[in-house]
Design goal:
alpha+beta; 5 strands; elongated
Length: 148
Amino acid sequence: MVGVPPPNHPEITFMGFFKDLKNVKKQADAMTPAEYKGLGGSMRMARDGMAQMSQTLDGMAGYQQKVMHLTQVGVPGTATITAIRQTGTFVNENPECDLDLQVTVGGGAPYAATVRQTLAMVAIPHFQPGKEVPVKVDPQDPQSMIIA
């Protein structure tokens, strides 16, 4: 036949590649919610993505304000880590974790608290149950603290 390449010809593999791309597009279309399809859907998706990014940045700014405040006015103390759990969120490929703590401030009785903090991957071995860490505690709210 004229115009048909032999079975071992390189063009045959390209046809498989384009077929795979077509299948990937079908899967992506099937996974896309109806409200995000079409031009209007793309605009909605972009708006929703920007809103989510704005919310994340607001949260980060709030955390930075808390850190600055507690660095200045926080009461120093120590805390023993009793448990650590990942929240499923990552910041720059570092996991956000909930750390359950037994906190002692100024020789007072220990009390339980939970702190949510992003931990550098290389620092995780230092944040295991039984380890003691320095904290700065808000004098107005003993549940509000940072690991210093």
